[in-house]
Amino acid sequence: MLNFIYYPISAVLWFWHKALSFVLAPDSGVTWALAIILLVVTLRVLLIKPTINQMRSARKMQELQPKMQALQAKYGKDQRQELGLEMQKLRKEAGVNPLASCLPIIVQMPIFIGLFHVLRSFNRTGTHMGEIGMSVQETRNTPNYVFGVDEVQSFLDARLFGAPLSGSIGMSQDAYPAFSPEGILSDFTRGNIIAVVVPLMVISAVMMHFSARMSLDRSARKRAQQPKKAQSAQAQQMASQMETMQKLMLWVMPVMYLSGGFLWQVGLAVYMFTNNTWTLVQNILVFRKMDREEEEERQAKLEAKRTTAPKPGVKPANPKKGRGAAKASGTSDASAVAGTSNPAGSTPAGSTPAGGSSAVSARGDDDALSDGSATAAGADASADDGADASPSTAPRPGVKPANSNRKGGRKRGKKKR
């Protein structure tokens, strides 16, 4: 039923065994163990990018916590559908996919199950649940997925520190003869299997614990750096549940691993040891990378604030005030244009020019008749003086020209009367 998993796993294991056989003995337990280790490396290399994306998604989810808590406080428990839609919209805008954080675990589980089945299928003489109960000769002459008969016999005859790679602590002694070409009692005991499997299991469980603790401590440190805000009762309950689950990961998973280890083959113990070692080292390196990225983002935000902040002693620019000043400047320019449309020296309609007939009208008729020649000469002289002084006495643009003759004429008229 799961052949779509079993065949690819056996193919990768077969490839690495063939590649290592060029430099190592094909029937050596070290060669087969290295093939299993390289199977783990192949899988985990393919999962590097999804793992980094998982951690980035987790970081974004942590940054969205204040907004998510605000939505929870807004909708409460009575509007779960609206809350779900708003949460989905918020995650979509932030580019966060909750399923991406589960991808590495989802992928590794079928690999683990598939490798367990492939390693157990090398020896099919058992009669327990899921075992076929073949004879020794049938087992040693039956292919195992992509492995031919020669590879099957090579795997059964291989030893790693005196233990067969498909042997387990809970294996019945009736299956032991399949590990020898003659079909008799083999050259190992249950103690040999225990001496290999138990240390690998204990070390793997310890590394699993420290990997979970490293992740938990980092999450706690990130939460402590965030500003504390008042949380709703629902948000506090969710945070408490999350913290409880993380603490369970510290102890429950390693204990479960140790309790189920008596069913695992030596090859599967090698797989788990390699996988947990990779996880621990990868977490150290990736967490450092994530910390550098977060520090760079923080510095970039601070630099952006510094560049947009006003300099010391400089008043911040007011855009509204700037628009008002521009509007006033436009009004004054329009006034100036209107003022210059009436140039100096031109006489508006109905006005009396300087040095004109106003001076003549201010005089009496008798003086005009007796002193006609003198008046004409004075008028010519006044006209010449007015022409010379017109550039300096011209009114500025926008300023109404002063009419000095009107006031003087009034005074002279009063004196005449």
Automatic annotation (TrEMBL):
- Record's subcellular location: Cell membrane; Membrane
Q: Which UniProt keywords apply?
A: Cell membrane, Chaperone, Membrane, Protein transport, Transmembrane, Transmembrane helix, Transport
Skewed-composition ranges (Polar residues): 329-360
**One MF annotation (Gene Ontology) recorded for this entry:** membrane insertase activity
- Among the Pfam families in the record, one is 60KD_IMP
Residues that span the membrane, as ranges: 31-52, 96-119, 193-212, 248-273
**Coiled coil where?**
none
Cellular compartments per GO CC? plasma membrane
The UniProt entry's GO biological process terms, in alphabetical order, are:
protein insertion into membrane; protein transport
Ranges annotated as biased composition (Low complexity): 227-238, 370-381
GTP-binding found in the keyword field:
no
The residue ranges of the Membrane insertase YidC/Oxa/ALB C-terminal domain are 32-286
Q: Where is the composition biased (Basic and acidic residues)?
A: 297-306
Q: What is its main location?
A: membrane
Annotated region described as Disordered, given as residue ranges: 219-238, 297-417
Q: How does it sit in the membrane?
A: Multi-pass membrane protein
| Compositional bias segments (type: Basic residues) | 407-417
Entry's InterPro entries?
YidC/ALB3/OXA1/COX18, YidC/Oxa/ALB_C, YidC_ALB_C
Q: Which NCBIfam families match?
A: PRK03449.1 (NF002899), yidC_oxa1_cterm (TIGR03592)
Q: What does this protein do?
A: Required for the insertion and/or proper folding and/or complex formation of integral membrane proteins into the membrane. Involved in integration of membrane proteins that insert both dependently and independently of the Sec translocase complex, as well as at least some lipoproteins. Aids folding of multispanning membrane proteins.
| Subunit record text | Interacts with the Sec translocase complex via SecD. Specifically interacts with transmembrane segments of nascent integral membrane proteins during membrane integration.
Q: Which family does it belong to?
A: Belongs to the OXA1/ALB3/YidC family. Type 1 subfamily.
User: What is the designated name of this protein?
Assistant: Membrane protein insertase YidC
Q: What is the lineage of its organism?
A: Bacteria, Bacillati, Actinomycetota, Actinomycetes, Mycobacteriales
